[in-house]
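Posting this for the archive.
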Amino acid sequence: MRQLNEQNFYRLNMDRRTFLTWVGVGGIASSLPVAIAACSNKTTTTSNETASTPAVNSGAVARADGFQPVGTVATLDQKGQLGDQKFVSGPLLVVRNPDSPDTLAAVNASCTHKACLVDWQAEQKVFVCLCHDSKFGTDGKVLQGPATEPLKTYETKLEGDTVLVKV
């Protein structure tokens, strides 16, 4: 067998510094797509967000009186709720008030605890946080924590078959 002297050893094998340099470059290169995606202004909707607040008419513009159309009464009655993820003041959820079916309740759908989305639970007649189970009444008031602040509520009205919410 042929013995390798120190000079030949370094020619045949990579030294530690070169190896670590290449590992570092590889690590940075492999994380670059993740960094680019994180900086993107495009957002995606999770299945929970889609299920809890169906996007309706999210491109609508507020009228001169401050009201913005968010959907139709037919859609509200069919789905039990109207949602708008791109409402001017934040995610919106509109339901019929169970205590007075002729009136509507509209709330900002971001929980005041950790900003998770709330979902309307018709059988319980409450808005429930999908993350931490806080419960809110149709008036936005906290019924069960951990949230301590009420949900923001909005003025609503009906014009024909259109549901309007004041910005």
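The first strand starts at residue 67 and ends at 72. The chain has two domains: 6-38, 47-166.
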